[in-house]
From TrEMBL:
Belongs to the acyltransferase CrtO family. It is a single-pass membrane protein. It holds the Pfam family CrtO. The keyword Transferase applies. Catalyzes the acylation of glycosyl-4,4'-diaponeurosporenoate, i.e. the esterification of glucose at the C6'' position with the carboxyl group of the C(15) fatty acid 12-methyltetradecanoic acid, to yield staphyloxanthin. This is the last step in the biosynthesis of this orange pigment, present in most staphylococci strains. Pathway: Carotenoid biosynthesis; staphyloxanthin biosynthesis; staphyloxanthin from farnesyl diphosphate: step 5/5. This is Glycosyl-4,4'-diaponeurosporenoate acyltransferase. Keywords: Acyltransferase, Cell membrane, Membrane, Signal, Transferase, Transmembrane, Transmembrane helix. The chain crosses the membrane at residues 6-23, 92-111, 117-138. GO terms for cellular component: plasma membrane. InterPro entries: CrtO. It comes from Clostridium vincentii. GO terms for molecular function: acyltransferase activity. It comes from the Bacteria.
Length: 163
């Protein structure tokens, strides 16, 4: 059962990461209300000390073609736009992983005395949900900064064009 559970979590995490690539890019536009920063978020992220721990969590975006571990040395508007899009994709992906992770509870019905194990599966699914929400917070924390960076790069490009 442990092996099945481990395989389930691996397939879930990587499967959703790749599945996200099949959806239309228009679903992951930072201008959509879903991705916009809410009035309370800055204060919340400050209380959570996101800036202190966000870089300590692993980043696996490189597996699906775009690492978000750090900014590239090649900082141009198209790169920052892609980074913003990828943050939207990652946000939805982590939310889905967190929610779908609770389907692991179905494995308890494969076990004799399933009710003896259900609490363990609930604990694992809840821990995974919390971890996934930490990744969502990182995406939401970084995105406004990336949008501001894009605005700055756009202004610099316009300035160079006219001067």
């Amino acid at each position: 059962m442990t092996c099945i559970n481990v395989v389930f979590w691996i397939i879930l995490n990587f499967g959703i990461a790749f599945l996200m690539r099949l959806f239309p890019r228009s679903w992951f536009n930072a201008e959509l209300d879903l991705y916009k920063e809410h009035y309370f978020e800055k204060k919340l992220y400050k209380k959570l000390n996101v800036s202190k721990w966000k870089d300590k969590l692993p980043e696996a975006g490189g597996i699906v073609g775009f690492s978000k571990k750090s900014l590239s040395k090649r900082l141009d508007i198209s790169y920052v736009d892609r980074f913003i899009d990828e943050s939207c994709i990652a946000e939805v992906g982590h939310i889905l992983i967190g929610i779908v992770g609770y389907t692991s509870l179905l494995f308890t019905f494969l076990l004799p005395n399933s009710m003896n194990y259900i609490y363990i599966f609930i604990i694992f699914a809840t821990i995974d949900f919390i971890i996934q929400m930490m990744f969502v917070v990182i995406q939401r924390y970084n995105r406004p900064r990336l949008i501001n960076l894009r605005k700055s790069l756009t202004r610099k490009k316009a300035y160079k064009y006219y001067h």
